[in-house]
Write a structure and sequence with these properties.
Chains A, B: Pathway: Aromatic compound metabolism; phenylacetate degradation. Chains A, B: Keywords: Ligase, Nucleotide-binding, Phosphopantetheine, Phosphoprotein. Chains A, B: It is an enzyme of class 6 (ligase). Two copies of one chain form a homodimer. The first copy, chain A, contains twelve helices and 19 strands. By secondary structure, chain A is α/β, with parallel strands linked by helices. The first copy, chain A, folds into two domains: 327 residues, 3-Layer(aba) Sandwich (Rossmann fold); 98 residues, GMP Synthetase, Chain A, domain 3. In chain A, the strands form five sheets. Chain A has an eight-stranded mixed sheet with strand order 4-3-5-6-7-8-9-13, with helices on both faces. Chain A has a four-stranded mixed sheet with strand order 18-17-16-19. In chain A, a hairpin with a 2-residue loop joins strand 14 and strand 15. In chain A, helix 7 packs across helix 8, helix 8 packs parallel to helix 10 and helix 11 runs antiparallel to helix 12. The longest helix of chain A has 19 residues. The radius of gyration of chain A is 23 Å and the shape is globular.
Amino acid sequence: MYLHKELETLTRPEIERLQLERLQKTVRHCMNSPFYKQRFAENHLSPEDIRSLDDLQKIPFTTKQDLRDTYPFGLASVPLEKTVRLHSSSGTTGNPTVILHTQKDLDEWANAVARCLYMVGLRPGDIFQNSSGYGMFTGGLGFQYGAERLGMLTVPAAAGNTKRQLKFISDFGTTALHAIPSYAARMYEVMQEMGIDPRRDTKLRTLIIGAEPHSEEQRRRIEDMLGVKAYNSFGMSEMCGPGVAFECQEQNGLHIWEDYYIVEIINPDTLEPVPEGEVGELVLTTINREAMPLLRYRTRDLTRILPGECPCGRHHKRLDRMKGRSDDMIILKGVNIFPIQIETILLQFKELGSDYLITLETAESNDEMTVEVELSQLFTDDYGRLQSLTREITRQLKDEILVTPRVKLVPKGTLPKSEGKAVRVKDLRKTF
Amino acid sequence: MYLHKELETLTRPEIERLQLERLQKTVRHCMNSPFYKQRFAENHLSPEDIRSLDDLQKIPFTTKQDLRDTYPFGLASVPLEKTVRLHSSSGTTGNPTVILHTQKDLDEWANAVARCLYMVGLRPGDIFQNSSGYGMFTGGLGFQYGAERLGMLTVPAAAGNTKRQLKFISDFGTTALHAIPSYAARMYEVMQEMGIDPRRDTKLRTLIIGAEPHSEEQRRRIEDMLGVKAYNSFGMSEMCGPGVAFECQEQNGLHIWEDYYIVEIINPDTLEPVPEGEVGELVLTTINREAMPLLRYRTRDLTRILPGECPCGRHHKRLDRMKGRSDDMIILKGVNIFPIQIETILLQFKELGSDYLITLETAESNDEMTVEVELSQLFTDDYGRLQSLTREITRQLKDEILVTPRVKLVPKGTLPKSEGKAVRVKDLRKTF
């Protein structure tokens, strides 16, 4: 049931003791990085000031901008010749960010991913196909090393070429697949086109989904389509990649490995901790990293800590599914809206497919939102029923997001498909 | 000087003793594979019949067709649950082929690649950028694991996006690059377009080139362009991937690791061994593999064993650079021609660039060869000089390949470029 029983079943006091010990060690180690040395000096702070977990609050946040400003290697806490891997973001906006790893970091990363995969029931004997991009994208090598560490037969399919993915699944008897949610849905569509019934013609039974915010309804729908259990995965390259937090078989929140990370949830405006259980920005401190530890890193991902105990016996805190990134937030007529809120409503309608597109436009100096959504395959083209369906969706969306969008039902297959992350929002508003 | 001193400096008798021991063990182990068990039975052969290295000749060859016929897992010598990785060919013609690896296989593969990279002078502290495709293509994960094993900082750039590759090279201070030869030449062109002087603006000093047949002239040209030493690498996914044979710093043939492989060179028609030093088809027997050993595998690569001792102190045999694949051979007017013969001639002309295209066509039921080749950037457009150059190239080509091609000099940048393996031959002949 547990790959690392001792670490996975630590009690809360044990977790906190281990965290304090690792935090103190990490902070001392960070003084090898010119960046943290200077930042501590500027704040009249020394590693000895960290005497309890609460003292973490004394340390300033680290931001993505700090990573950019120190590009490429200014945040390293070890000499470069001790590092064996770097991952870099694409840097589409501004300088890319770089994360460095020592051999020990790669080992611990593989351990974390292996622990996650074991937690959802995967074992040696399973055949694990990874449809992530490889190379710089951490979903590729991250799952590769973790799945090998666990001893599964890995199929490094990499991204794209859906028909080839399906050939692998059927020829190799793939039992577990890692894919982003929109791509899993796309695979199902291609299966239908090819006459493949996933339950009859494949051995798939476990799906790992992550890297793209999605709703519980989206997950259940994918599970129904493919006849699998689908588990949420959370990771980010700044924290290494996949393996940061993962659902257990309860499918009720993502356990974040507190022997690797200290979790905080803050209000992104005031930067103060939010009250227990409220949604805010996830802030993580790495306490098990060598090449490039990050202290109080603002992830820009929005989530909350779920209250209560998990029946699985792990006391590592559970994150709610990501609500999106603080950057994804749409501000329309002064209201904060997350695309995931809209998705959650749409997917409650059996008449609708899983593809939708939110367009924001300025019409007569008025900002408006249009929600286009595909009908499911089997639905009617009776005009009256479509009209009443449109009205009902509009009403429910307004209840949720407080503004009234224009809702357009479009035939299945109309919206553009991508093999990468789905594009859900198009912002065409004029800025004045 | 040696990463695995003991294994790299074995004397010939020691190599042969180790080979026999490993061969016997491998053959016994192969009896776990239904394929080999049956093949041995059909040939009234048992593992006990292998008493000396010469007895290897008793074992039938294994071919690519055998891999296809047993697709996907019929050649495994261990239960599937002991394997942790598979690589599959694209299967553009017929069934794909699949190679399986245990954890020990991956370890030994990484060791072999690390040994190669160390042999050419790379060390921890070097920054190694890999421009191979990742995923199923073994050049990606193969070099990744080997370079990490050696302790270099690895940059998993993956294939394509030349400007991004160049940004990595300059931002990260890449000292060593793995690229196929035509792509290395392409990178240099883009550097020129961007005003980058590789000697002045980069720290590149080692290039690993492989996966594409190329001539000594091509290598020297790439070395001159980029200001690097370029080392030949030979590998194939059936043998694991990169790391099978590699040049040492003498740049005089590729040492094949005889603690991993037993080498034979055969006449592809008679299947008999060729006399010492003559060109023929490379046949390899894996003697250090667990999941899927291959006995006397016909690689279809053409090469020869170089005579004499290497000053580097390694007694592992040296392969001559690959002459192409038996499949690449062009038969024109009854003459066997390898594209590499043509390249070797072309690159002796300073007036020519490194891109060329061989087209085979039927004109009035006569098969003809056209060789288009790009001029180098600085060359004249004086018609008289171009004519005499064309004549001289035609004459030298005829001397080498025994048929007279039509030679066309074209301006630089005219021939189609690819970011994958260069396409050198277009066969448009009618088949009757």
